[in-house]
Design brief:
The protein is an alpha+beta fold and 212 residues long. The protein is built from 9 helices and 4 strands, in the order E-H-E-H-E-E-H-H-H-H-H-H-H. The protein has 2 domains: 80 residues, Glutaredoxin (3-Layer(aba) Sandwich); 111 residues, Glutathione S-transferase Yfyf (Class Pi), Chain A, domain 2, CATH 1.20.1050. Helix 1 links the parallel strand 1 and strand 2. Helix 4 packs parallel to helix 7. The protein is globular and about 45 Å long.
Length: 212
């Protein structure tokens, strides 16, 4: 049986995505904490494993995989049940667009290193950083709501979880942490509730990880 090592940080939304995917695929893994609060990801030892110095990184099948979506695609290809992408090519493009709206358009503007740069190097006050955060998250979620609504079901696409939901749940967790209002996004909230009720998603939640 495959056993993997996930270099992880409990509140990293990118690592959260990979935990969900590993759980959905039933892949046994060991979590090794990389504490972003103390810049452990910048250490020489970690950069020797992952030159980019980010989490997550997954060691599996003799490989060191980086970038959460690349890791999840690998898992979906090598552990095909349950599938995280629909069979039809047009449907795949739609689900991929939903996922990338989160992973490429929302998340990068609001991750920890950006917030730290705003607060440290640029001297932006915490209240202003929170305004920055809420603005870009709200703008991105509004676009995602419009993209998803017409083809959603219980989940962002149809009635089974997909790559889009794997990205959505961590993003809404972060949105709630920063008090982003979600009333305008009923499709997203419904999909998040459906996914979060599944053990694979619930067990990946930051609060369920060992104290890190």
């Amino acid at each position: 049986m495959t056993r993997a090592i996930l270099h992880d940080y409990f509140r990293s939304s990118a690592a959260y995505r990979v935990r969900i995917a590993l759980n959905l695929k039933g892949v046994d893994y060991e979590s090794r904490s990389v504490d972003l609060r103390t810049d452990e990801q910048k250490s020489a030892d970690y950069r020797a494993l992952n030159p980019q110095g980010f989490v997550p990184m997954l060691e599996i099948d003799g490989l060191r995989l980086t970038q959460s979506l690349a890791i999840i695609v690998y898992l979906d290809q090598h552990f095909p049940d349950p599938p995280l992408m629909p069979a039809d090519g047009a449907d795949q493009a739609h689900v991929r667009a939903l996922a990338l709206t989160i992973a490429c358009d929302i998340h990068p503007l609001n991750n920890l290193r950006v917030l730290n740069y705003l607060g440290g190097t640029l001297g932006v006050e915490e209240a202003q950083r929170d305004v920055w955060y809420r603005h870009w998250v709200s703008e991105g979620l509004a676009a995602l709501e419009a993209l998803a609504a017409h083809r959603s079901g219980a989940f962002l696409f149809g009635n089974s979880p997909s790559l889009a939901d794997v990205c959505l749940v961590p993003q809404l967790y972060n949105a709630r942490r920063f008090d982003v209002p979600l009333d305008a996004f009923p499709t997203l909230v419904r999909a998040d509730a459906s996914a979060s009720a599944l053990p694979a998603f619930a067990d990946a939640h930051p609060d369920k990880q060992e104290a890190q």
